[in-house]
Amino acid sequence: MVMSVGHRCAQHQPTEYSVNNMSHPAAIRQYAIVTGNYWAFTLTDGALRMLVVLHFHQLGYSPLQIAALFLFYEIFGVITNLLGGYLGARIGLNRTMNIGLVMQVIALLMLAVPTQWLSVPLVMSAQALSGIAKDLNKMSAKSSIKGLVSANQQGQLFKWVALLTGSKNALKGVGFFLGGALLALIGFKGSVLAMAAVLSVIWLASLFLLQQDLGKAKNKPKFSEVFSKSRGVNILSAARLFLFGARDIWFVVALPVFLSSQLGWSFWWVGGFLALWVIGYGIVQSLAPLITGNASGKVPDGRSAFGWALILALVTAAIAVAMSMNLPTALILITGLCVFGLVFAINSSLHSYLIVSYAKEDGASLDVGFYYMANALGRLIGTLLSGWVYQTLGLIACLWVSAFFIALAAVLSIGLPRTAKVNTHESR
Predict the structure, then answer these.
(1) Residue 20 class from Cβ within 10 Å (0-12 exposed, 13-18 middle, 19+ buried)?
(2) Which of 76, 113, 191, 397 gives 131 a disulfide partner, CB atoms 3.0 to 4.6 angstroms apart?
(3) Which residues are CB-neighbours of 89 under 8 A, at least 6 positions away?
């Protein structure tokens, strides 16, 4: 089984390489370019998220108002994932990735205006562009791996997906720290201008280096195919919705605002702590194949997803109970966050592997896009609940709602296939 690397730029001839061996230089080069783009984008995405939360909290916005600023970010993420997979299969993942990069540059420049011009509609519009950009970039990166690893190498697929996902999240943590540090050092406007300049350079390099036909389907898909016909993909997507909704219910708005307002942490402390948390989370994601037994030849399936989701639900409920007791709040919260991050990272890595494994061979971005549409919908629900539940009931209530969502994800995971890979004929 072979696949064309295509043109590195318009005048070069395609080079053939076997996707059965990820050690081939051409395959590794494309993987490195995709990962590098994903890393650069993730840094700006994490930094921008922290900049917006802390800057607008500083301006006096309530938690619910801050959550509303991300409303379009999540809404357009839902739409982008649904349509982006279709677009990637038709025009190629290199183009969707590059479109995502340039849209993030535009979003950053939109925010580089005087503070008095930073109205809610302007910020929400910039966040809408950033949401589209983020999900085009993520869908492109995750889908491209399907074409670089053959169907009979599931252990290797798990390893490469875990490495891409884990390294991305580790850098997102660096982005959180970067956002807090930049806000303290050069202010909001200087921060977004600096990030736009760096990302512009990355985008220009990507135009020439990415494989021209990466991820393009041999048979042009119909628009109706944006909705997956695979039972495994549909169940996993539903579980993903509740899993990531559960995380964002207490992590997006409630946690940073609680650390700043209730525990009195500075921007440096909030950004630094959340950065370290996400970096650790990303490292665990990268190591998930070792933790789950992949090194001994065991490949995760539906049972793995159910078991780890159940553990996560119990961990979250335990944090809520401990927070209700007369114990040191900071110690309980920090310890609980560390345990939650470890178990959530394994859950996330398992899901990321399973969707790439379940996706059909030709036009994988269709299934991956549908799955990340559910992910974005979960984030949207979680973001809104994070602001509303925290403002009305507090952090402990956010934790209980989170535990309930994770329990739903565990129940849904019971219906996932109990084999390492779904039959590709079932997928479409």
Answers:
(1) middle
(2) 76
(3) 215, 216, 217, 220, 221, 363, 365, 366
Sign of the alpha-carbon dihedral angle for 175, 177, 181, 184? positive
Q: What is the CA radius of gyration of the chain?
A: 21
If one counts the domains in the chain, the total is 1
By three-state DSSP, how is residue 209 classified? helix
Q: Report pLDDT digits (tens) over 84-129.
A: 766 766 777 778 888 888 999 999 999 888 877 878 888 888 888 8
In 10 A of CB 162, how many CB atoms? 27
Residue 359 three-state SS: coil
Contacts of 173 (CB under 8 A, 6+ apart): 46, 274, 275, 276, 277, 278, 279, 280, 281, 282
Which helix H or strand E contains 2, and what residues bound it?
A: strand 2-4
Classified as helix, coil or strand, 3 is strand
pLDDT of residue 289 exceeding 50: yes
Provide the CATH number for the domain around residue 13: 1.20.1250.20
Burial class (CB in 10 A: 0-12, 13-18, 19+), 57: buried
Asked if 252 contacts 386 with a C-beta cutoff of 8 angstroms, the reply is yes
Instruction: For residue 424, name the pLDDT band (cuts at 50, 70, 90).
Output: very low
State the angle between helix axes of 154-209 and 329-358 in degrees (0 to 180), rounded to the nearest 10.
Answer: 90
pLDDT digits (tens, 9 = 90+) for 216-263: 555 555 555 555 567 878 899 899 999 999 999 988 788 888 888 888
Containing structural domain, residue 55: 2-427
Query: 10 Å Cβ neighbour count for 177?
Result: 22
